[in-house]
Amino acid sequence: MAVKIKYYARENTKVGTHSFYGQPLPNGTLDFESLCEEACMDNTYSVEEMQGCVSRFMKTARMNLLKGFRIELGKKFVTLYPNLQVSVKDYEDEKTHELVVATAKMLSAANAKSRIGATVNPDFSAEFARNVSWVKTDATGTPVDDEDDATQTNEEASQNGDQGNGGNGGGNTDGDENLEG
After folding, report:
1. How far is CA 59 from CA 64, 79, 135, 140, in A?
2. How far apart are CA 161 and CA 18, in angstroms?
3. Alpha helices, DSSP H only, in 22-161?
4. Bridge pairing between strands 132-136 and 99-100
5. Which residue, 109, 113, 119, is CA-closest to 173?
6. For the chain, which terminus, N or C, has the lower number of CB atoms within 10 Å?
7. Which residues are registered as beta bridge partners of 137?
8. pLDDT tens column, 77-117
């Protein structure tokens, strides 16, 4: 059974006019307790046992992430890693108007932002792509009648002889990326 996720068109004002991207419209937020309750359905674990084990696991994951380790959250799911956002590039000196050529020595963590990065496993990303379909809406979630919009899943597409849209190998994000203007 394919999951239908709503999305709407947003203008990306950071790159200029006439640039749009799809913005998923979340179905809501599942909190830690709700996820643990759902994970305990049809098994012998209590919600308290599940919460205790997951809390201990995440505490250990956080501690080791702070030590600089890459942290795998489940087999073929998501990996967290330390991420340092810092770069230097050539620039024109304001007083002399001469070109200052960037060097590795100019790079300093003191001018950086420490972030947590995340990589989605390519297998999970492909599974997601196979099992999801998208429904175009306006920003309030009201469906938009757009005949050109592909709302079939990749599985439905392959049954119909279409190529489908596949899925990429996952991506990296620092948790702060925001395309809005």
Report:
1. 9, 15, 37, 37
2. 33
3. 32-39, 47-65, 122-131, 154-159
4. unpaired
5. 119
6. N
7. 143
8. 999 999 999 999 999 999 999 999 999 999 999 989 999 99
Residue 26 pLDDT: 86
Q: Please, are residues 68 and 83 in contact by the beta-carbon 8 Å criterion?
A: no
Give, for 114, the enclosing helix (H) or strand (E). strand 113-120
Question: Is residue 153 exposed (0-12), middle (13-18) or buried (19+ Cβ within 10 Å)?
Answer: buried
The pLDDT of residue 167: 37
**Residue carrying structure tokens 């304001």:** 94
CA 167 to chain centre: 13
The stretches in the chain having pLDDT less than 70 are 1-2, 147-181
Q: What are phi and psi of 93, to 5 degrees?
A: -65, 130
8 Å CB contact between 153 and 135: no
Query: What does the pLDDT look like over 110-121, one tens digit per residue?
Result: 989 999 999 999
